[in-house]
Amino acid sequence: MLYASKQLIKQMLHAHKWMGVSLGAGLYLICLSGTVLVFGHEFERWQQPHIDEFDTLSPRAIDNARQQILQRSDTSPETIWVMPPTDGMPRAHVATAEHEWFTDSAGNLTEVPLEEAGFAAMLRHLHYYLHLPENFGMIIVGIFGVMLLGLALSGVLAHPAIIKDAFKLRLEQSYRLQQTDIHNRLSVWSLPFSLMIALTGAYIGLISVMVVVAAPLLYNNDLTAIMDAVYGADPIMDGEISPFDTRRALDELRRVAPEAEPIYLAYQHPGSRKQFLEIAATLPGRLTYSEIYRFNSAGDYVNHQGLSDGPVARVVAYSVYRLHFGQFGGFGVKLLYVVFGLALTVVCAGGINIWLAKRKRETRINSAWAALVWGTPLGLSGSALLSVFVPTLATGTFWGITALVLVAGIVTNCATKVRASLQWLLSASLVTLALAHLWYTEAHTTAGIGLAVDLILLLVGLTGVWLLSRQAVIDSPEPNLLPGD
Predict the structure, then answer these.
(1) CA-to-CA dists, residue 297 to 16, 66, 71, 245, angstroms
(2) What is the rounded distance in angstroms from the CA atom of residue 279 to the CA atom of residue 247?
(3) Which residue, among 142, 187, 153, has the nearest Cα to 320 in the 3D structure?
(4) What pLDDT, in 10s, does the model give residues 351-396?
(5) CB count, 10 Å around CB of 10?
(6) Is residue 140 packed enough to be buried (19+ CB in 10 Å), middle (13-18) or exposed (0-12)?
């Protein structure tokens, strides 16, 4: 049990309520999109199921991919990235700042990824930037992370018995008490997760602001110097211009770090005396996104960036991404992130539900909120459905459906009717999405991740239909019986 003065509790409760009411819609949108984005790699593979998938990319294939994209570039690129297949993304692609292509197992360019179109890209930009201009949008999302941290802490201080009542559920009581208990219980059970998500999200969103603020104070306004201090500086190279020896560099990596698993190779400043090769690799049992190993063009090991064994602040800073998105530990960790992410999403929605339930009468705000809560996942489902056929319409479809549902909810002015209708539509749309994707990509989804995603969508949709049908039967009045029945 937490002890605090009555005055502090009252102040925290007031702050918690109005922070939640003012930020609830934005937090709900960010938390819901982030929960779905845990399986972002799976949706990337799902939306282009015909791309070749394989386990390894040989040094010769890497060089072939690099040469082919170099031939398609109008100018000499500053960096050429080659991403070999990994466990989470068993596909290879090669990129410069202007172009990006998938490759086959021999390194031949095959098809352009849907980086700026399609459902996965729409979802990523929604969670990262709220579809605002990127720099501005990321700052806004970072501010929401700070506010989420404030909500979590003020919620604990405002309810001193929240830990003691961790298993108190009054589901048979009034709607307001039901929502209060669900909100409070899920808040307690997901508190460590919520604090971690809030802190890491705030850091990712506001790192650019922190750099701009710290640079004039600590580094004489040198932005490069502060980034080098946080993440490590690039090596200074001045050697002969010679072809990259990728095979030797990979052999050297196995000697220097036998357990390292490459996730990308970055050919920096190719064709100049400053050229060098970076190999980013994950290390087992480490949260850091990667360690980056540097080699000269002859494949000789130069150094590594110290992202896994350097200053503590650097290691922590480079571990934030995997921690925030659950990109470690395999499928089990992803599943836990989805469970806790859904809990946090329900908490965000529940806070507004409690506030609405305490009001003396129902207004159009109630139906508008119901429309937003259930219209947003419907918008995601509709966006995914249309992007199967026309990937470039994913973003417009999401906002179009969400806005249309919101207007319909306000016009209907009945939260119960809006909620029930949208739940039916959402369930039906998930079933339609799974069947449409199976039909449209039939030749490529008979096995693998495409089929798995479709089966999960189908299962969730059918479960929703079944639960809603049962609820309709339970809620329906008994028929009038005729004499003798």
Answers:
(1) 57, 14, 19, 6
(2) 12
(3) 142
(4) 898 888 888 888 899 999 999 999 999 999 999 999 989 999 999 9
(5) 12
(6) middle
Residue keyed to tokens 């050429």: 80
Total Cβ atoms within 10 A of residue 402: 21
- What ranges do the domains of the chain cover? 49-113, 359-468
Cα dihedral value 401, 41, 196, 131, nearest 10: -40
Within 8 A by CB and 6+ apart from 427, the residues are: 461, 462, 463, 464, 465, 468
Amino acid, single-letter form, for residue 96: T
Q: What is the dihedral of CA 358, 402, 18, 126, to 10 degrees?
A: 150
Q: Please list, in sequence order, all residues whose beta carbon lies within 8 angstroms of the beta carbon of residue 195, skipping any fewer than 6 positions away.
A: 149, 152
Architecture of domain 49-113: Roll (3.10)
Phi-psi sector, 112: left (phi>0), alpha (psi -120 to 50), beta? beta
Instruction: Give the global pTM.
Output: 0.88
> Considering only CA atoms, which of 97, 103, 68 is closest in space to residue 80?
97
